[in-house]
Amino acid sequence: MDIPRRHIALRAIHQTHCDDCALNPVCLPPALEASEVHLLDEIVARNRPLPRGAVLFHEGLPFNALFTVRSGAIKTYNSTPAGEEQVTGFYLPGEIFGLDSIGSPNGKYGSTAIALETTTVCVLPFDALETLGRKLPSLQRHLNQLMSSEIRADQHIMQLVGRRTADQRIASFLLTLSARYKRRHLSENDLHLPMSRSDIANHLGLALETVSRIFTRFQQVGVLQVSGRDVVIANRQSLIELADGKTESVTCNSK
Amino acid sequence: MDIPRRHIALRAIHQTHCDDCALNPVCLPPALEASEVHLLDEIVARNRPLPRGAVLFHEGLPFNALFTVRSGAIKTYNSTPAGEEQVTGFYLPGEIFGLDSIGSPNGKYGSTAIALETTTVCVLPFDALETLGRKLPSLQRHLNQLMSSEIRADQHIMQLVGRRTADQRIASFLLTLSARYKRRHLSENDLHLPMSRSDIANHLGLALETVSRIFTRFQQVGVLQVSGRDVVIANRQSLIELADGKTESVTCNSK
DNA sequence: CGTCACCTTGAGTATTGTCAACTCGGGTGG
DNA sequence: CCACCCGAGTTGACAATACTCAAGGTGACG
Fold first, then answer.
1. CA of B229 to C1' of D26 (A)
2. Residue B206 — very low, low, confident or very high, per pLDDT cuts 50/70/90?
3. Could you tell me which residues are beta bridge partners of residue B190?
4. What CATH number was assigned to the domain covering residues A3-158?
5. What is the pLDDT of residue B10?
6. CATH, range B164-251
7. pLDDT value at position B15?
């Protein structure tokens, strides 16, 4: 009974065309004419749902397409030579991924994308997209803007991981996620996290135990209500202050 | 007398046209015809040298151009609401910066760029570049690739800052820098760092004292020779092993 | 020759990671 | 239908890497 109804919302997207896709305002076509959307629609491929754990593309395979999430969630990661993973991003419905592989040295994907839950995606063959971008300046511009946004998102993570305490990172992460949920007309306070504690930890440069402890502590001070991967933001103002480092949760008892 | 002659090499670039610029192979035009380079050349503006500390663009000012470094070096950073800085990148001759501001929310620069030493840059007005990109597909493609590379570079830093020890971060940072110097036909072992310890620390998510200590320690074990901002890689193999975490420098004496 | 960044070095501490044990819940098979 | 199992998550104890605070040192430039 605590399976939130947002799941229904996500699954309601079964359209096979861009022009009547519920994600329209979030996804690629921003200022495109109907006729132009149609052109885009023609190059987009749609697949059957991917099960949890399915690999969309793998580091080292030839790069040929970008992807957008239609429903579900995706994580991307890089592998280090030593075999460890670095989670580079989580992608929600309407978000585009694979952008890091466009100019990759030898035309291979530079990261791996994997479904965090049952997920459907749209496939955007890159050659066709590039060609179409020449015809539709606003499409090309949008692509530029998406890449630029990805850069800013990554720099935001750099900032979190490099200069913020564990508390601040978690608080910021949740607020960013909340904003992205809101943008999709989902509850901004009632989040269902598609990723594991370990994924969050990896992405934020923390140990998974630290993430777990902080969730518990945030719950104890009444900022969150946590039940596994269901998180309710109970006190948004406190969470914002935690993210900004104005509060210290309950850490310092000394001094 | 330890002012290295690479400075002369950098300063030798005084050309006012792309087609005879020494950075040609590193910079924008990759597979462009001579006539096409000329078109690009027409939209590029070049300014007088900027002194150390000069601001090229500032967070919040209207975005209108990208930049490439002709000589000298640039750092970019984001400011947090609380007033702290996060150094997002260092840019050497031939490298392009400002890419993170292309799709910025309200058409403003999302970061600040500042000259680390006497620096000359080329100005690429973005509207003109976008228009030209429509005419020259290979230019547009190159721009896409540059943005994608920036994403990968940022993800590499994420990886360093999130999952590597201080030793590994410094070692990796120096190796990356070395590779970039080499690409510019400068000595790959005899580096002059244009940035302060504090900038390095900030960029890598460390305290400046930590950076200083590690430079000293790397010198003690014979991996580097350090004299202020002049760094000689004395034992590249060891540095690589340090970056990979296969060596522990001199840290663990216990266990 | 003094001043001012920038850098180095030291001492002490604390935040966060590591190791380890335990719980919980869901799914599967007997 | 129940029991088991396994992955995911939680919690605790301890250690250590890297930070903070603080006090010098060095070099460049006026």
1. 13
2. very high
3. B232
4. 2.60.120.10
5. 38
6. 1.10.10.10
7. 54
Are A3-158 and A164-251 equal in CATH topology? no
Q: Give pLDDT tens digits for A177-211.
A: 999 999 888 889 999 999 999 999 999 999 999 99
Mean pLDDT of A237-252: 81
The H-or-E segment that residue B9 falls in is: helix B6-11
* Distances, alpha carbon A37 to alpha carbons A17, A40, A198, B191, B207, in Å: 9, 5, 39, 51, 50
* Whole-angstrom distance, CA of residue A205 vs CA of residue B145: 27
Report pLDDT digits (tens) over B41-52.
888 988 888 999
Query: Is A191 in contact with A174 (CB distance < 8 Å)?
Result: yes
Q: Do A157 and B152 touch (CB under 8 A)?
A: no
Single pTM value for the model: 0.90
Nearest CA to B76 out of B123, B50, B109 is that of B109
B103 to A149: CB separation less than 8 angstroms, yes or no? yes
Comparing every residue's Cα with the C1' atom of nucleotide C7, the nearest one is B212
- Within 8 A of A163 by CB-CB distance, chain B residues are 80, 84, 86, 202, 205
Residue B2 in this model has a pLDDT that exceeds 80: no
A206 touches strand C (CB under 7 A): yes
